Every structure is written in C-alpha cells, then in structure tokens.
C-alpha cells in the first residue's frame, strides 16, 4: 500500500500514482464486488429531470450518497433492499488514515462503476457538513481522463490520466473544486470483470464531535 510518493498536481490536490500494486488491486476489486452482492449496483437519477446516470453506484459505510428526482442526499440504507450498507473495507480505512491526516474516519464510500461510454460531468462534492475533511478517491480498472478545476464552473481546468491503483486526495482550497470524468480508455486494464472502471470515493459526512 502506498507504493509511491505523492505529488501535488494543484493546490490541495495530491496524487499517489500506483499507490496499490497489482495484487492489492485484485484483492480490492474482489472485495468490492463481494460486498456489492449485499448492496447491488443501481443507476441513480438526476434531480428534477429524472435522467439516469451513465454510471452505476452503490455505497459502503454508515451513510450512502444517493440521487433521485427529489435531489442529492445521504441515506443510511440501500434504496432498493432497504438494508444497511456494508462496512467500508479495511484497506480503504487504512489509506484514509495514511493520506488525509483527518481526525475522524470516513462515513461513506461511494462506489461508482463505469462501463464503456460512461462518464461523470463536472460537479462539486458539497452535500457533506464536514467540508473541512478531504475527499479520497481510489481508481481500479480502466484508465480514466479526470478533469479538475476551481470552485466555479468558469475556472480553468486540467486533465489528468488516472490509472488502476492510483489514489487521489483533494481538500483545503480544492475541497469544493469542480471535477469529473471525461472518458475511459476502454480495455486498458483487466482488473474489473466485464471491463470498465471502479472508483471508490471516501467522504466524511458529519462534523466529528470534539
């Protein structure tokens, strides 16, 4: 774990390229897919329009991020099964401790499954009360072109290729940066059965009690 050193790609944005080796990536993919049997992937909807996302999602942790026609929010239970979300894998909690320096553990691990053609438009992660906590992202599977900008939609952006095993953390001045996935490089990895990319995003939702 953390088989590389971080470098800052923008103020508040750090990348560990190849942080997880091939064995760790394979074990984590298997773990994620096993947990997803208890919390199946589903396709969220955009607020108001009800248009389905191009990515499939599920969550691990005490809270799960969810979107439907009524808006964005966190829920304690899976929208289809009404069961509590599975716990966050220990390897991800260890990554959080080693990379964020935050004083409390994450409460949500949002799992995004990108198949060929899926993308994620520019958006902010702003549905959390604990905005002082950074966001941690782990990439598994196909390479993706990740775009990140500033705290307004009109701010300049930069594109970065994220590969399987990369770990990205953004916080501080970049905590509310607009970011998204432009496209996948299909077939660039064999880690995800059936092809595609799994992105794991760890977030602290509530401000920790002192």
Describe this structure in words.
This protein has 210 residues and is mostly beta strands. It has a single domain, classed as Alpha-ketoglutarate-dependent dioxygenase AlkB-like (Jelly Rolls, Sandwich), CATH 2.60.120.590. It contains two helices and 13 strands; from the N terminus they run E-E-H-E-E-E-H-E-E-E-E-E-E-E-E. The strands form three sheets. The chain has a seven-stranded antiparallel sheet, with helices on one face. It has a four-stranded antiparallel sheet with strand order 7-12-9-10, with no helix packed on it. The radius of gyration is 16 Å and the shape is globular. The two termini are 30 Å apart. 38% of the residues are buried.
Helix content: 10-25%
Overall CATH architecture: Sandwich
| Tally of DSSP β-strands | 13
Domain module count: 1
Spans of at least 5 consecutive residues whose pLDDT stays below 50 are none
Indicate the CATH topology: Jelly Rolls
Provide the descriptors you would attach to this structure in a database record.
210 residues, mainly beta, Jelly Rolls, four-stranded antiparallel sheet, 34% strand
Briefly say what this structure is.
The protein has 210 residues and is mainly beta.
